[in-house]
Amino acid sequence: MKEEIEKKLIAYTAETLKVDESTLNENTNIKTDIDLKSIEMVGIISKLEEEYDCYIKYTELMHADTIGQAAQIIAKQIEG
Question: For residue 61, is pLDDT > 90?
Answer without folding.
Answer: no
